[in-house]
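Exam revision sheet. Question 4 asks you to relate a sequence to its structure. Input first:
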Amino acid sequence: MAVNRLIEFLGLKKNIVFLLALTVLILIGEKLWERFLPKYIQVIGGSVMVIAGLGFLNNLLAAFWSLPGGYLSDKLGYRKSLFLFNLMAICGYIIAILFSNWAAVFIGMIFFSAWSAVSLPASMSLITFSLGHSKTAMGISMHSIIRRIPMAAGPVIGGLLITKFGLIEGIKICFTASVFFCLLGMIFQNMIDDMPPAHYEKIHPLSLWKQMNPRLKQLLFSDILIRFCEQIPFVFVVIWCLDVVKISPGKFGILTAVEMMTAALIYIPVAIFSDKIERKPFVVITFIFFTLFPVILFFSKSFFALIIAFVIRGLKEFGEPTRKAIILDLSHTASKARGFGLYYFIRDSFVSLAAFPGGWLWMQSPSLNLFTAAAFGLAGTLIYILPGVKKTK
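Answer key, structure tokens:
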């Protein structure tokens, strides 16, 4: 039947379907408030450097949680580890709901940042385990497309709530909704088959690093520079749009939806070719879009111009599933979740350092912040183009 062929083509096996449902529920809650959090921090008394600290903490926690996430996924199995991560997120949201100061938000982030960071190695390992090498990029693309639905809808809904109830009360309502979606998501994660490896081999992170493929190390170095390009202005994008261009929170939510829908539209076409031909060009194109975004944003002084900028921002996802597929391809078979977690641990540990220079650059001049970011993007792109990663299939 045509429907069965389509399901097979898209890699929609049982575990993948439940994983996608879980992902939608958790992320719809998270994305209600995420893009507005820097503005929330500003309104409740945070300085520019505190806002920069938000970016630092977000990346540092992403790095910290990625490694134990990979280890727990390989040892406990997917279902148990995802359940643990959900409980942690709920605890974080409760803290942020009860207290209205930036310190409470930072403390809450220690817990509610865990789900996205810790669950990613588990999700990627589950996809490659369930679908195999020939469908890895397609499976990751489906995961990325599904992620973009709440990433597109969440900020629009969040922007409307903030416009109606005010920034502080609106964010609190969004945090409360996040708790509800975490609880609902537990129903779907309980349906995922637990598939821990037959034999869990203890591997020290240092040994994992020594075993890492040299091609993967080159990708990692370039990726760090590219993420500096992204993170130097990241927490200030909403400030630029609301305070400099002077659009409403609702319109900013629309911009985020434009970004996510742009990304979603390109995932499947890219995945079809990525699983069949050389993966590297897809990653290079992604890096180019990362580099272009801060430059385009600087010249965007109207809502229409911002739409173009956010289309470019969406296009930076062009080769993201491909990049993740490369990481999985080049990770050791018995420790793919840990290898994936180590990659993100190293990358995000370094990238967390971009936040404070980003804050300092913003205080000097928004233009200095944006063009410095673009310079990092250009460097990362050129390094990855250099000979070294000759084959990624």
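Marking note for examiners. The chain has one domain: 2-193+203-385.
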